[in-house]
From TrEMBL:
The keyword Signal applies. The lineage of its organism: Bacteria, Pseudomonadati, Bacteroidota, Cytophagia, Cytophagales. Gene3D superfamilies: Tetratricopeptide repeat domain. The keyword Repeat does not apply. It comes from Flammeovirga pectinis. TPR repeats lie at residues 83-116. It comes from the Bacteria. InterPro entries: TPR-like_helical_dom_sf (IPR011990), TPR_rpt (IPR019734). Keywords: Signal, TPR repeat. Residues 1-21 form the signal peptide. This is Uncharacterized protein.
């Protein structure tokens, strides 16, 4: 419980520092931020697929260190097939310019999340499918 709280606080701090740096300095974060996320992952439980997926989501959104993001997505999916990791995988493929694989990943995410209680994730993935399936 304390580990998850510590990891969440670390993610919040990294995200906030990225936002401030983005306003003041440049459009892309420094790879130092990816290192901080990587260090936070060393404190995660071995079966915590969500931490890997959320970490990958952050660096995919930054559009930096995409190879590292792909490794974390794969790790998350190896631990447990989950909707968030498939959504992030879709985002990864979009950054790679592979819309077809992105749609496939979003559809996998949607098929998983339909049976969960996460309506926010479901709606977000549905919007992505509609937006990128044109």
């Amino acid at each position: 419980m304390i580990k998850k709280l510590l990891i969440s606080i670390t993610f919040l701090c990294v995200t906030m520092s990225f936002t401030q740096a983005n306003i003041v300095e440049e459009d892309k974060p420094l790879s130092k931020n990816t290192q901080e996320l990587s260090e936070a992952l060393t404190h995660a439980a071995e079966d915590d697929y969500e931490v890997y997926a959320k970490s990958a989501q952050i660096i995919v959104n930054w559009n930096t260190d995409l190879e590292t993001a792909k490794e974390w997505i794969d790790t998350s999916l190896e631990i447990e097939e989950n909707a968030l990791a498939y959504e992030v995988l879709g985002d990864f493929y979009l950054h790679q310019g592979n819309n077809e694989m992105a749609i496939d990943s979003y559809e996998k995410s949607l098929s998983i999340v339909m049976f969960d209680a996460d309506a926010t994730l479901e709606a977000r993935v549905q919007r992505k499918i509609l937006a990128f399936n044109r």
